[in-house]
Write a structure and sequence with these properties.
3 strands, single chain, 6% strand, 141 residues, mainly alpha, 4 helices, three-stranded antiparallel sheet
């Protein structure tokens, strides 16, 4: 894990990644928060949501920054036990959501890399890259 960890640190520095100072919703204590039905709770007043750039007053009025969806553990099946098919469906939904988050994170990373590459000065003269040498170096590690 040594070289991989140092490469990851170097990569995060390259794209300008900074540790988040905002807690995730799962880390916020919602036990004493106002409810709306069984699925929604109001965020506490002291919760500072991550900053969102590019919002106009229209979007600020339209988008929800106060209420979050929470799992009740029963969803709409409070009076029934879930079948194996329902469990599989919920697990599939969770996997698809996680995959969507990973894809979006990768897209954001690629855009950050593209922006960083655009900031680099153009190399002078002809620069030749021999892919075979790079692959041989990678195989030795």
């Amino acid at each position: 894990s040594g070289p991989l960890k140092s490469n990851f640190v170097h990569f995060k520095n390259l794209v300008g990644a900074k540790p988040s100072v905002y807690p995730t919703i799962s880390e916020v204590d919602l036990t004493n928060c106002a409810k709306c039905g069984v699925s929604y709770k109001k965020l506490p007043r002291d919760y500072l949501p991550p900053l969102c750039s590019g919002r106009t007053p229209f979007w600020n009025a339209l988008l929800n920054d106060e209420w979050v969806s929470v799992s009740s553990g029963r969803e709409d099946f409070g009076h029934m036990k879930r079948t194996q098919h329902e469990v599989a469906m919920f697990l599939c939904e969770d996997d698809r959501y996680e995959l969507d988050m990973l894809v979006e994170a990768n897209v954001s990373t690629m855009l950050a890399i593209k922006d960083r590459l655009a900031q680099l000065p153009e190399p002078e003269g002809d620069v030749m890259v021999d892919d075979d040498d790079d692959m041989a170096d990678a195989d030795e590690d």
